[in-house]
Description:
The complex is a heterodimer. By secondary structure, chain A is α/β, with parallel strands linked by helices. Chain A is built from 10 helices and 14 strands. Chain A has a 6-stranded mixed sheet with strand order 6-7-8-3-9-10, with helices on both faces. In chain A, strands 2-1-4-5 form a 4-stranded antiparallel sheet, covered by helices on one side. The longest helix of chain A is centred in the C-terminal third of the chain and has 15 residues. The radius of gyration of chain A is 23 Å and the shape is elongated. The two termini of chain A are 31 Å apart. Chain B has one domain. Helix content of chain B is 76%, strand content 0%. Chain B contains 13 helices and no strands. Chain B is globular, with a radius of gyration of 22 Å.
Amino acid sequence: MQPAVKVxxxxxxxxxxxxxxxxxxxxxxNTLYGLLGPNGAGKTTLFSIAAxxxxxxxxxxxxxxxxxxxISELRGKLAMLPQDAAFQGSIPVIEQLIMFSRLNGxxxxxxxxxxxxxxxxxxxxxxxxxxxxxxxxxxMKRVALCQAFLGEAKVIFLDEPTAGLDPDNARRIRExxxxxxxxxxxxxxxxxxxxxxDICDHVCVIDKGRVVEAGTMESLTQSTFLVRIELxxxxxxxxxxxxxxxxxxxxxxxxxxxxFNLHLNVTGAGKDEAMKAIYGTLAGFEIYPRxxxxxxxxxxxxxxxxxxxxxxxxxx
Amino acid sequence: METATTxxxxxxxxxxxxxxxxxxxxxxxxxxxxxxxxxxxxxVGLSIASLFIAPLEELVxxxxxxxxxxxxxxxxxxxxxxxxxxxxxITSSDSAQSEYLLKDNPALLSAILLILLIAVPFxxxxxxxxxxxxxxASRGLRYLLLRTERSNIFLxxxxxxxxxxxxSVIGTMLVILLYVQFKVGAYPGMDLxxxxxxxxxxxxxLSLPYIALCAWISCMLDSPFGSLAICLLISGFSLAxxxxxxxxxxxxxxxxxxxxxxxxxxxxxxxxxELLHGALTARITAILAMLGFTAAFLFLxxxxxxxxxx
Lengths: 316, 310
């Protein structure tokens, strides 16, 4: 199947600063694709080139098989939530959405209906007549998101759609993204790794302008088999020693009195047997798990891959 | 969601240019920037008109010598040799042209138009400086870039400003003409309105290259204020540079100043009074020159806009 987005040897330089350095990437069609990277990794630059905002220094991006330098062939098929793009402050949002819809090919009446419907989807039908500058940051983000819902785009780039939002607004946006139909490819960048892990089925980690890891979420998070167990009661020294003695356990790492991580030396089919042995050992000491999380968290993998810290600030 | 009614993609779409032009006009009015320009244009136009009309109004209150009416007196003054000499000096033309401006056509309106044409390049900059620079800075253009070609945005914004300028010019000229006709009442209505229409076209054609120049400068800079400053500087400084060049050529190379008339024709400014020339061929040449400058500035602007990061 043809990838929805194909990035080939993409390089972008801003003066002497290299933002993207020979990026090669394929984003499968009809996936929710997470794009991760620390500050300055080049995520927004990649999005901006894909949408035709920036010109690449070298290389190319194809969206739905069309080189983005011929972006007019992608009108209506490609949508985007740009990170910092502003609506016109003193103009009612509905007017601006109508103009966007008219550029998508609708007549005036149909454009108005489409704009009103898009505002309803993001839960903001009441702000239609309000000037953009009268809206809160969260509302404005949802309005910006709703312009990406205008039309029948097949590929949607969302550049940090939940950045700077309160938990309720962030949840609303996550739900909207998850509600996309299966015939769309959504490329989603975020600094919230848990959010990416929850909603994306594929992920790519970019660092210093290069792709350092890409694949399915499962392959990325389970490449190291790790079990995080939270207990009802404290883990005794004896129980800890017994767990350590199990042949499937490589190491044990206490994160609190009632929580620990086990690093296992098994993957795939051996996982079930290993878990059975762990549960049995704990039961022998009358210790019972409150929760069990299998697999490395995306955050752990991210830090392992990038070898750095994650500060969740703006990107380039 | 919309139904799938998107048009077949086209690199250049007159429909998109028109949509962007209409909305940029509407948004300019709503945001206050357009109103400010309209106000500036009206203020400049009416101030220039009042320079000539106010003294005439004073004359109207007095009795003219030798039984002349106030209107006759004002026409006599404006058609005098002294005024004719001044017009020849301002327009760098001959007596035939001053006669065309002062005797063949309503002299009061000619005087207003001559001064108005000096102000047009600078006034136009105030309405045209922010065609794209503000939206490049705020990245607001990105919402349009996802939906249409860069050339459509550039030309749409240019057309929007052009339409707004036409509205402003018509509004200003209308006020001046109505005032001259009903308050001063010195000229037959038909003569006044026909000459007013020619003046209107002169102002329109002169503003064209300056709007295009602003489109070019505006897409090069991310700062609206910077764009305004550069547009005004180019409009004003190009004249100063040409004047200094002329002085240098005259003093160092002993060139006859009479042979350097072409120098000022290298900028739109040098053609402005040709737009009011009595000879049709001169008027058409001036219009073609204005269109040529406009096309050149638009070409340079569009080429830059299509290449730059937005």
